[in-house]
Amino acid sequence: MSVTPLVVLDCDSTTIQDEVIELLADAAGTRERVAEVTERAMRGELDFAESLTERVATLRDTPDTVFAEAYARVRLSPGIRELVAAVHARGGKVGVVSGGFHEVLDPIAKDLGLDFWRANRLEIADGKLTGRTFGPVIDAEAKAVALAEWAAESDIPMSATMAIGDGANDLRMMEVAAIGVGYNAKPIVTEQADVSIADDLALAIPLLDRLS
């Protein structure tokens, strides 16, 4: 008998093929500055919260119409609709937790029929971005907390949970889940993931049968 699963995915470069901050920066004309900060973060010079603060600061005074522009350019990852359908067919739930932003994740979640989603929020004043976020920062620990909360809320045991991600920021939630799946993952994630898949999220569907 199949179990009722909870599958939680990262958003950027996992659920979608893009990085939302880069789509916003493209529309704001600050792509180079954002790429610079991202590079420093990858070199370990900044932690996630610091890099988020610096990247969001580049968006200051950008009109909030930037969200619709960014969403129009989002490319869903191959197999995501099939994965969501397979989890729902088993009576399960799908969540996406993102170091990106609710303003772009909300319409993605609606489009995909997600059960849960959580991301950072951008502050807006007079129709423009202030260059700041507000509310809790969604970092690696917050992703793990979200997975555990959603499992508890759904009465799904942790033994029936799967986490899918590509970056170091996803390792904590992959650690707490019963199965951690690296998707087109960075080397550090491939090393620590229980399973690695590439290019098609539907490849995670057979892994649902391993959950208990």
Q: How are the elements arranged and paired?
A:
Layout: E1 6-10, H1 20-28, H2 31-42, H3 48-57, H4 66-72, H5 80-89, E2 93-101, H6 102-112, E3 116-125, E4 128-134, H7 140-153, E5 161-165, H8 171-176, E6 179-183, H9 187-192, E7 195-197
Parallel strand pairs: 1-2, 1-5, 2-3, 5-6, 6-7
Antiparallel strand pairs: 3-4
Quick take:
With 212 residues, this protein is an alpha/beta fold.
Task: Supply the number of helical segments.
Answer: 9
For this structure, the CATH topology is: Rossmann fold
Mean pLDDT: 94
Q: What is the beta-strand fraction?
A: 15-25%
Name of the CATH architecture: 3-Layer(aba) Sandwich
CATH superfamily: HAD superfamily/HAD-like
Low-confidence stretches: none
Order of helices and strands: EHHHHHEHEEHEHEHE
**Count of DSSP E strands?**
7
Q: Rg, please?
A: 17 Å
The shape is globular
Number of domains: 1
Quaternary state of this entry equals single chain
- Give the helix/strand class: alpha/beta
Helical content stands at 40-55%
| Major sheet attributes | 7 strands, mixed
Separation, N- and C-terminal Cα atoms: 10 Å
Strand order of the largest sheet: 4-3-2-1-5-6-7
What is the CATH class?
Answer: Alpha Beta
